Inverse folding.
């Protein structure tokens, strides 16, 4: 009887030790997965989401450019934007959120000019934009903005123009005259559907409304673009002017304050700007509510 009891006790101890070892092994494996692989996997998912938003904002830019070119009223077009990602099942992880918003009058374009036989004048034009901002838990946050016809991506290190606006420069070196054609898209909200937040996919609808400004400004001295994305505009404007054979410090200078870009045309040239504002109405969500 004593031997039977001893064998039973030994078997119970061995079973308990085995169970503890198995549980410990499972805990160790889950901890390694949680601490090492989950952050890597979630960072990859958030990076892929940022790539997806880049494509979606590129499609949005293409749609608005087409509407601005066609000038056809009464035809709203929906473009879908995915705001974020859900967390992983079972394992501990965080959601990625995003915000899509229509911002009325969030930037402006200013033209300083002197009409023939007149005093110097300053013309100011408020411009609305469409903005997406991410709240990632693992990957670097990125913001996307459709602004004055350009698509701009921003990170903590700076901003970059990915889709270019309608800005064309022609320089006649014989007469020292410069002709600039600048078509600006102004986004204005319709109704109260101006913002969406979370991690789902939301449509943003856009529709051509009107051409509110179509003027020619002569003897232009300055063009100022007031925007937090002044670095992206500075790089683009500098390249556009120099590609037209205009020389920095000879024909123009640029001043970037971080909140505004000021283009100064020097007395060595005469500048004429054909300036157009194309009004696009927009709202976020299904349906079109006036």
């Amino acid at each position: 009887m004593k031997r039977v009891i001893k064998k039973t006790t030994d078997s119970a101890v061995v079973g308990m030790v085995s169970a503890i070892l198995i549980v410990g092994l499972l805990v160790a494996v889950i901890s390694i997965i949680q601490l090492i692989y989950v952050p890597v996997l979630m960072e990859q998912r958030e990076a892929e989401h940022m790539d997806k938003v880049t494509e979606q904002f590129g499609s949005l830019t293409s749609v608005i450019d087409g509407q601005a070119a066609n000038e056809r009223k009464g035809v709203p077009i929906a473009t879908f934007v995915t705001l974020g990602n859900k967390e992983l099942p079972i394992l501990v992880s965080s959601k990625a959120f995003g915000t899509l918003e229509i911002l009325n009058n969030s930037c402006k374009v200013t033209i300083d000019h002197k009409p023939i036989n007149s005093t110097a004048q300053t013309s100011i034009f408020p411009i609305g934009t469409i903005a997406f901002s991410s709240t990632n838990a693992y990957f670097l946050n990125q913001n996307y903005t459709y602004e004055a016809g350009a698509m701009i991506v921003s990170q903590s290190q700076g901003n970059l123009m990915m889709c270019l606006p309608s800005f064309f420069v022609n320089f006649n070196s014989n007469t020292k005259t410069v002709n600039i054609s600048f078509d600006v898209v102004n986004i204005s909200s319709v109704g109260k559907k101006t913002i969406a937040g979370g991690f789902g996919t939301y449509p943003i609808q856009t529709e051509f409304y009107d051409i509110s400004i179509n003027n020619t400004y002569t003897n232009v001295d300055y063009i100022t673009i007031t925007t937090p994305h002044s670095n992206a505009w500075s790089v683009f404007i500098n390249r556009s002017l120099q590609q037209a054979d205009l020389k920095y410090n000879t024909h123009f200078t640029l001043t970037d304050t971080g909140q505004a870009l000021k283009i100064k045309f020097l007395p060595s040239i005469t500048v004429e700007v054909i300036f157009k504002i194309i009004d696009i109405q927009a709202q976020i969500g299904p349906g079109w509510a006036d």
In short: The chain has a mean pLDDT of 88. DSSP finds two helices and 14 strands in the chain. The radius of gyration is 29 Å.
